[in-house]
Amino acid sequence: MKLLPAALILTFTIDVAVGVGYHEAAFKSVRQARRECSVQLRDGTAGRGECSTRCRGLVTRYWNDSLGLPAETIDRFYQPAAGDAEYYDLTEQCLGEVTAAIPLEDSCRRADCTVQCYGDQYGQLDGETAKFVPFTDLQHRRILMECVAMLGVPVERLALFVKHGIEYYQDAKCLLRCFMLREGHYTDDDGPDMERMSLQCEGNYNDEEFRIKARSCVRSLKEQYLDHCSLAYRIAEECVNGEIAVKNIFLGTIIVVVPSNALDLLPSIPLPTIPGISIPTLIPNLPLPTLPSLLPNLTLPTLPTLLPTIPTALPTNLPTLLPTALPTLLPTA
Fold first, then answer.
1. pLDDT mean over 10-29
2. What average pLDDT does the segment 52-69 reach?
3. Which residues, at least 6 apart from 224, have a Cβ–Cβ distance to it below 8 Å?
4. Which of the 8 DSSP states describes residue 191?
5. What are the angstrom distances between the C-alpha of 171 and each of 55, 157, 196, 288, 295?
6. 281 phi and psi angles, rounded to 5 deg
7. Helices and strands counted in the chain (H then E)
8. d(CA 96, CA 275)
9. 218: closest CA among 242, 197, 191?
10. pLDDT one-digit tens code per residue, 139-191
11. 261, 236, 264: which is closest to 251 by C-alpha?
12. ∠42-125-134 over CA atoms, to 5°?
């Protein structure tokens, strides 16, 4: 039996250990990006002259030609100097001067100069440390469909998740968990990775006060001993929410994946019920009581009449008030 060299075994073990838990997440340093771009752009193959800075920005996902500015997530490659309180404002001022002087169409020169603003004003470049690379929209769609296939979720159910909400479907919660796991934003043991989520969501979770509240929220939910899928959903909904959030990216990806007319075919499908929870209507569907039924079922007493009953016909045997023969007043002559 031929034994493998110890170095090869060690390398294989490290690769496996790094891959588990990161899933599809990619990490690159500026030096790695520079090496990739040097291969792609050598000997004028790109036909755009010197454009390596723009290429590095595209590889590490901090450059977008339509904006003509580096994304805020470029700061992951720079370390501000200790005690420098003006680095941010000076960088913004430099970026404003560059964008005013160089047109948007000149993307290569604009990338060179705007990135130079970070090198001159923001801080020291860390070109060796590999950093998380945010996913593109195309990668989101691929990972979503991989999760759909792995979990056996019928594609037609995706429209229901958008129409009614993730909270009504257990398989939707599991699909969200798979999506976050595959993109390396979440693990069952450690919860959300704030740094990667922040990079994916354009710096939405950079604020330290937000992170402290989010960690407290995660601890509180873990104490409830929820199942894995419900826990992942509740964390995404309650702890790491916001205008730009992983849950919103997930729903936005579903909207792109489902057919454009799928939502129009669903109006006849009733809203599902959450197990163990009934959704009351605003007004109970009960018949209104009639007025008499509001009172006790008692017979009202009859009141005595104030006057005696008078007969309608007078009796014939009433005594006469005068005698029959009237006496004469004068004597008979």
1. 60
2. 94
3. none
4. E
5. 40, 9, 25, 41, 52
6. -80, 160
7. 12, 8
8. 55
9. 191
10. 999 999 999 999 999 998 999 999 999 999 999 999 999 999 999 999 999 99
11. 236
12. 70
Over range 10-27, report the average pLDDT: 56
Among 11, 22, 212, which Cα is nearest to 133's? 22
pLDDT at 34 over 90: yes
**Average pLDDT of span 113-138:** 96
Note every long-range contact of 168-173, with CB atoms under 8 Å and residues 24 or more positions apart, other chains counting: 168/271, 168/272, 168/273, 168/274, 169/272, 170/229, 170/230, 172/233, 173/229, 173/230, 173/232, 173/233
Q: Check residue 147 and give its pLDDT.
A: 98
Mean pLDDT for 27-42 is: 93
Q: Which of 62, 251, 234, 64 is nearest to 141 (CA)?
A: 251
Structure tokens at 228: 């894995």
Query: Which tokens sit at 142?
Result: 């691929």
Query: Which secondary-structure segment (H or E) carries 254?
Result: helix 246-257
User: Is the separation of the CB atoms in 205 and 181 below 8 Å?
Assistant: no
Q: Which pair of tokens denotes residue 226?
A: 């929820």
The C-alpha atoms of residue 333 and residue 320 are separated, in whole angstroms, by 31
Of 331, 148, 180, 152, nearest to 250 by C-alpha is 180
Instruction: Give the Cα separation of 42 and 317 in Å (integer).
Output: 143
Helices (H), 52-169: 52-59, 87-101, 107-117, 137-151, 158-164
Give this prediction's pTM: 0.71
The fraction of the chain above a pLDDT of 90, given in percent, is: 58
Interval 221-248 mean pLDDT: 91
Question: Which of left, alpha, beta for 44 (phi over 0: left; psi -120 to 50: alpha)?
Answer: left
Phi (first) and psi of residue 125, to 5 degrees: -70, 130
Query: Who contacts 8 (Cβ-Cβ below 8 Å, separation ≥6)?
Result: none
Q: pLDDT tens digit string along 243-271?
A: 668 999 999 999 999 876 655 555 545 55
Residues composing the chain: 333
Tokens 């964008």 found at: 99
